[in-house]
């Protein structure tokens, strides 16, 4: 594998940039692996990478039914931050953020991580109280968060509608300056290339159709490319956790819902911060290509359609325009949708399942992208050792029956309430 | 956008309705704890047909039961919720 560098680029330039190796192999599945990871999204590929890198388990396959990074990894709004209120969540996400900060070097792949600041807007006194509480919770655990006045928010994002008669008045904000965006496809490709370099087999167009068991223990998987044996199997298929766990006869506290995202035509740089309103559930950022990327609420009913309904498009546009009126003249050029794995308390499930050797990493709701490296790291720990990484310990499947749910929004246990 | 044929009001836009839960996850007040936990948290979440409890919140406010395909959004049947049948 050629190491990517300025020198390698220069050298390849002498021969017209031809002769680059493929970034990862396209191997036939072997009859048996120590660990099989089902799902070639960012989380699954990161899991395989850390299995090989940290735990030296290299007889690993990642099975992907389509192409890697073609699910939610390639459909999100690319926002990375760790400013969650609850300690279990911000500890896990901040660990992930630390990995994001070194990811391009670690993988020798430019994931274009851009820590441009993640700004939450406050629209009322109640919002500001909630933001101050969140900021205090973060600072108590050593995660920097700054409460901003309306004037400071205006200075940061001059295009916001700060007028007194604004539809959503802005009273201030909370910023995590280490937050930002990353190139989502590059995350999948970077982890795939690095994992492949350590000997992991990445097998695309390989759909898992069955999970084989013997005496209460997992023995492998049936796939569209034949049966493959495995010592341990890790499900990592957010969006489809229910159907895949269902292959082993397991039911999960997860429902699939559709979440849409939108992008406008590309314009010159106009918003250099990630703007979020938790009250509105509106997300605005500008991609490096220039498009304004918008996100909103899920369609709040179960769906695998990977296409959304028009009212959400209208709402996301209306909210974005109310916040940043200058967006009103832009044309929306694309809208798309992913299938989110909505857990019942809004937090992920990283856990052994009731079949020995079978594990689950899912239920990330609409917040999984930012966790990608941390999720892979702690899941690799679980798959390698059979024991939960300390950061993942609160996220067991048994927390629901025990009543130890991790409900960031504090709204109750139904997925459509997130 | 789905159009839901409310058994009380006739066809209306999906935006008037709210999804509540699957029909097999309704918990009654006298249910043993184990069964209640299983009903609340163990979902089949199928890629296909399921029976769902919805509410016509911006209409007649009645509970209705949809049999709906979660991949195609096709609505196969809508009936009024009837405790004698559905509980």
Description:
The complex is a heterodimer of chains A (418) and B (87). Chain A is α/β, with parallel strands linked by helices and 418 residues long. Chain A has 2 domains: 223 residues, FAD/NAD(P)-binding domain, CATH 3.50.50; 150 residues, 2-Layer Sandwich (D-Amino Acid Oxidase, Chain A, domain 2). Chain A is built from 11 helices and 18 strands. The longest helix of chain A is centred in the N-terminal third of the chain and has 16 residues. The mean pLDDT of chain A is 96. Chain B is mainly β. Chain B has a single domain, classed as Folate-binding superfamily (Folate-binding fold), CATH 3.30.2270. Helix content of chain B is 15%, strand content 38%. In chain B, the strands form 2 sheets. Chain B has a 4-stranded antiparallel β-sheet, with no helix packed on it. The longest helix of chain B is centred in the middle third of the chain and has 9 residues. Chain B is globular and about 40 Å long. The mean pLDDT of chain B is 94. The chains are: A alpha/beta (418), B mainly beta (87). Chains A and B meet through α8, β12 and β15 of A and β3, α1 and β4 of B.
- At CATH level 3, the topology of chain B is Folate-binding fold
How far apart lie the N and C ends of chain B?
29 Å
Q: Biggest interface pair, residues each? A: A-B, 26 and 25 residues
Which residues of chain B sit in consecutive blocks of at least 5 with pLDDT less than 50? none
State the secondary-structure class of chain A. alpha/beta
Number of helices of chain B: 2
Mean pLDDT of chain B: 94
Helix content of chain A: 25-40%
Provide tags for this entry.
heterodimer, A: 418 residues, alpha/beta, FAD/NAD(P)-binding domain, D-Amino Acid Oxidase, Chain A, domain 2, 2 domains, eight-stranded mixed β-sheet, globular, B: 87 residues, mainly beta, Folate-binding fold, four-stranded antiparallel β-sheet, two-stranded antiparallel sheet, 6 strands
Task: Show the helix and strand layout.
The complex is a heterodimer of chains A (418) and B (87).
Chain A lengths: L5 H8 L18 E7 L3 H12 L6 E4 L15 E2 L6 H15 L1 H5 L10 E5 L2 H16 L5 E4 H7 L15 E5 L3 E2 L2 H14 L3 E3 L4 E7 L2 E7 L2 E10 L5 H6 L7 E13 L7 E4 L4 E5 L4 E12 L7 H14 L8 E12 L5 E4 L5 E5 L9 H14 L13 H4 L16
Helix pairs in contact in A: 2-7, 2-10, 3-10
Chain B lengths: L2 E4 L3 E4 L4 E5 L10 H9 L7 E7 L7 E7 L5 E6 L2 H4 L1
Antiparallel strand pairs in B: 1-2, 3-4, 4-5, 5-6
């Amino acid at each position: 594998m050629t190491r990517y560098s300025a020198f390698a680029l220069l050298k390849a330039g002498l021969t017209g940039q031809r002769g680059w190796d493929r970034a990862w192999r396209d191997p036939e599945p072997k009859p048996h692996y120590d660990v099989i990871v089902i799902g070639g999204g960012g989380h699954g590929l990161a899991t395989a990478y850390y299995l090989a890198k940290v735990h030296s388990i290299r007889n690993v396959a990642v099975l992907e039914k389509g192409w890697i990074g073609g699910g939610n990894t390639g459909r999100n709004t690319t926002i990375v931050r760790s400013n969650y209120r609850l300690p279990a969540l911000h500890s896990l996400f901040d660990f992930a953020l630390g990995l994001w900060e070194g990811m391009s070097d670690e993988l020798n792949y430019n994931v274009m991580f851009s820590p441009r600041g993640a700004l939450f807007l406050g629209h009322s006194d109640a919002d500001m109280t909630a933001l101050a509480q969140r900021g205090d919770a973060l600072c108590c655990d050593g995660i920097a968060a700054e409460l901003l006045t309306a004037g400071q928010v205006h200075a940061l994002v001059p295009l916001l509608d700060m007028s007194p008669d604004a539809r959503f008045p802005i009273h201030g904000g909370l910023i995590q300056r280490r937050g930002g965006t990353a190139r989502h496809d590059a995350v999948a490709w970077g982890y795939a290339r690095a994992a492949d370099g350590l000997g992991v087999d990445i097998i695309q167009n390989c759909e898992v159709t069955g999970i084989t068991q013997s005496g209460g223990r997992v023995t492998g998987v049936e796939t569209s490319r034949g049966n493959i044996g495995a010592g341990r199997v890790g499900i990592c298929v957010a969006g489809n956790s229910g159907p895949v766990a269902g292959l082993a006869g397991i039911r999960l506290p997860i429902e699939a819902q559709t979440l849409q995202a939108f992008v406008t035509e590309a314009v010159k740089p106009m918003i250099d911060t990630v703007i979020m309103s938790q009250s509105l559930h509106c997300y605005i950022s500008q991609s490096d290509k220039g498009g304004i990327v918008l996100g909103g609420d899920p369609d709040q009913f179960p769906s695998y359609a990977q296409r959304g309904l028009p009212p959400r498009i209208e709402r996301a546009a209306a909210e974005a325009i109310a916040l940043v009126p200058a967006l009103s003249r832009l044309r929306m050029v694309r809208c798309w949708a992913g299938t989110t794995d909505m857990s019942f308390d809004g937090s992920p499930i990283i856990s052994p399942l009731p079949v020995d050797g079978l594990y689950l990493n899912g239920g990330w709701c609409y917040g999984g992208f930012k966790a990608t490296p941390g999720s892979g790291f702690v899941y690799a720990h679980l798959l390698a050792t059979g024991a939960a990484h300390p950061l993942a310990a609160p996220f067991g499947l048994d927390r629901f029956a025990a009543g130890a749910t991790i409900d960031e929004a504090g709204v109750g246990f139904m997925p459509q309430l997130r | 956008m789905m159009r839901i044929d409310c058994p009380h009001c006739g066809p209306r836009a999906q935006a008037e309705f709210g999804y509540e839960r699957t029909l097999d996850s309704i918990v009654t007040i006298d249910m043993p704890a184990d069964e209640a936990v299983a009903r609340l948290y163990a979902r089949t979440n199928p890629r296909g047909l399921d029976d769902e409890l919805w509410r016509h919140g911006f209409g007649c406010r009645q509970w209705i039961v949809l049999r709906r395909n979660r991949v195609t959004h096709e609505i196969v049947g809508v009936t009024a919720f009837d405790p004698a049948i559905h509980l």
